[in-house]
Design a protein that fits this description.
By secondary structure, the chain is of the alpha/beta class. Helix content is about 55%, strand content about 10%. The chain has 17 helices and seven strands. The protein has helices spanning about 1-5, 20-30, 45-55, 70-80, 105-115, 135, 150-165, 170-180, 185-195, 215-225, 230-235, 240-255, 260-280, 290-300, 315-320, 325-340, 345-360, and strands at about 35-40, 60-65, 90-95, 120-125, 140-145, 165, 200. The longest helix has 22 residues, at about 260-280. The radius of gyration is 22 Å and the shape is globular. It starts with a helix and ends with a helix. About 30% of the residues are buried.
Length: about 350
């Protein structure tokens, strides 16, 4: 997908928020234990990706964890008090803290900040949530603002040039204006109109779309609204991409529905959406995104129910999140060994298990 292909790979690729970027770099350079930075602002404007890009640019490892993963926060806290055996630097990122403001989670994050020997970066849509009042005292707040229409338009033109597609300027402007400052969504809109085309002179009107619904609100609307239009808008407006929304729906079907026939019907609908998902992500047929979305949206018609349902993050994503730190440390070790042994990291990765068997070491 274009949004992945043109994901920033270095600091100079980041669009907008130059002052915020400079402040983050300065914090990392002058870091002192006991102070974190809290990046806040609307979804889709680069709060999370900026930490990843800075880590790549400065050859610093990054450990990311979602605020919902309280056990992982505790684990990171224990490992953040000591430097790496190989002397590698690290950044710790805790995402979406404003969605998990219970006392236990906030306390663990504060303890992490107090003891960490590595820079701690927190992200939130709303830094002034009342549940974060105590935490704010340990943070320097850095606001991320929506990206300007001109900057988004410039980036879209660059993408069109690299993709070899000619798009009328008025269409570029319309996409940029309707994005609401969300570059990720603007690129997704561009993807839809240029797929399988080399020249775009007209397209359907792209209206302004509300942006910034978090995943919990989006899932609630999809399951409960009983309105195809509302469910479709929820997917468009969500701060997660459509594949992640798919996995959230899969995880929460059995939480939302209790009758066996409803559960079976819901999984049948999602299985059909999965068929289109495979065509998108494996076959690279991006026109199938619309059919995937329509199948997901249709689940809203199973029943209307306004009762409260506690939704949970997908186990698939949580497993990847929990293993992220271990994978980062293994990658660091593989890199060091590859350099010493004059071979590739891939070679080290494939041969290391046999060396462990031969030596009897864990």
């Amino acid at each position: 997908m274009l949004v992945n292909r043109y994901k920033p790979k270095k600091v100079s690729d980041i669009v907008g928020n130059s002052t915020a970027l400079a402040n983050i770099v300065e914090y990392i350079k002058t870091f002192k234990t006991g102070k974190a930075i809290l990046l806040y602002g609307a979804p889709g404007i680069g709060k999370t990706i900026i930490s990843q890009v800075i880590s790549i640019d400065n050859k610093i490892n990054i450990t990311e964890v979602h605020a919902s993963e309280i056990e992982e926060v505790k684990k990171i806290k224990s490992s953040s008090t000591m430097m790496s055996l190989l002397g590698a630097k690290r950044i710790i990122v805790v995402d979406e803290i404003d969605n998990y403001t219970d006392k236990g989670t906030v306390t663990e994050i504060i303890n992490l900040i107090k003891t960490s020997k590595f820079p701690v970066i927190l992200t939130a849509n709303d830094a002034y949530d009342k549940g974060l009042r105590t935490l704010r005292g340990y943070c320097t707040l850095i606001q991320f603002r929506r990206i300007g229409t001109l900057s988004i338009g410039k980036k879209l033109r660059e993408i069109c040039a690299k993709e070899g597609v000619e798009v009328d300027n008025d269409i570029i402007v319309r996409i940029a204006e309707s994005s609401g400052g969300d570059l990720r969504s603007a690129i997704n809109d561009l993807q839809i109109i240029i797929t399988n085309r080399k020249k775009v002179t007209h397209t359907e009107i792209i209206g302004f779309r509300e942006r910034g619904i978090n995943i919990f609100e989006a899932i609630r609307i999809i399951f409960k609204s009983n309105s195809l239009n509302d469910a479709s808008k929820a997917i468009d407006s969500c701060d997660k991409d459509i594949e992640e929304i798919f996995w959230w729906m899969e995880q929460n079907i059995t939480n939302e529905y209790k009758k066996p026939e409803e559960i079976a019907f819901a999984f049948d609908i999602l299985s059909k959406a999965d068929m289109f998902r495979e065509k998108v992500y494996v076959g690279k047929n991006y026109r199938m995104l619309l059919y995937m979305k329509n199948m997901m949206v249709s689940m809203t018609l199973i029943r209307k129910d306004n009762s409260y349902t506690p939704y949970k993050p997908p186990e698939k994503i949580m497993i990847l999140g929990k293993s992220k730190e271990d994978r980062a440390e293994n990658n660091e070790t593989h890199g060091k060994l590859a350099q010493e042994l004059h071979c590739s990291k891939r070679c080290i990765k494939t041969q290391l298990p046999y060396l462990k068997i031969i030596t009897g070491l864990d």
